[in-house]
Amino acid sequence: AYSRGFKLSLADLDEAAEYLASQARGLTRLQLLFVLPLAFGLLHLLLYLFYPPARENLHYALFAWAIAALAFLPFQAAFITTPTGFLTFLAGFKIALVLAPLLGAIFFYEAFLGMCPRFLRLPAAAGVILILFSWFIPIQAYYLFALGSLPEMARVIGVSAFRKKPGARIVAAGFSVFM
């Protein structure tokens, strides 16, 4: 949290200007991590709304928004001023850590295999438990859940690209960039 008041410092003008410019460039790059998935999610939601039979667009929109939440929430930590605010922030981040891999797996299965396999019910049930008890379970469990899903998502994309499924290579490129 920020203390009240102001900060005054003396510095060389050129060095201070370069420092502020580098800070602004760095912040802009970090904001792109949030804005790009948000925009892609909105685009795919519109695609779904105009052509509902292509449900993979809805799944991708939800997946992209979960990725956007993972990029956005850490920037908000500096503005938390109460213990309740911190716990709420942490619960939201944990929920996004669960939703991103689950929604990503659903999207990859639907887009490339046409359906979700039955065994996805087990990770989905674990995800529901993690979400329901997000105030009590340590964050390490959420990181393990998210990391544990990456090999399966990579496998589905890799197999789909190897089988030359339409769109698999572009999804593989996007997956490698955002993951």
How many DSSP-defined strands? 0
Cα distance spanning the termini: 30 Å
Report the uncertain regions: none
What would you call the structural class? mainly alpha
Q: Oligomer, anyone?
A: single chain
For the largest beta-sheet, the strand count, sense and barrel status come to:
none
Mean pLDDT: 88
Helix content percent band: over 70%
If you compute it from the alpha carbons, what radius of gyration comes out, rounded to the nearest whole angstrom? Answer: 20 Å
Number of helices: 6
Strand content: under 5%
Shape descriptor reads globular
Reading the helices and strands in chain order gives HHHHHH
Structural notes for this entry:
- The chain has helices spanning 13-50, 55-76, 83-113, 121-132, 139-162, 168-178.
- Helix 3 runs antiparallel to helix 4.
- It is built from six helices and no strands.
- Helices cover 77% and strands 0% of the residues.
- The protein is mostly helical.
Question: Could you give a quick summary of the protein structure above?
Answer:
By secondary structure, this protein is mostly helical. The chain is built from 6 helices and no strands.
Task: Give the arrangement of secondary structure elements.
Blueprint: H1 13-50, H2 55-76, H3 83-113, H4 121-132, H5 139-162, H6 168-178
Helix pairs in contact: 1-2, 2-3, 3-4, 3-5, 5-6
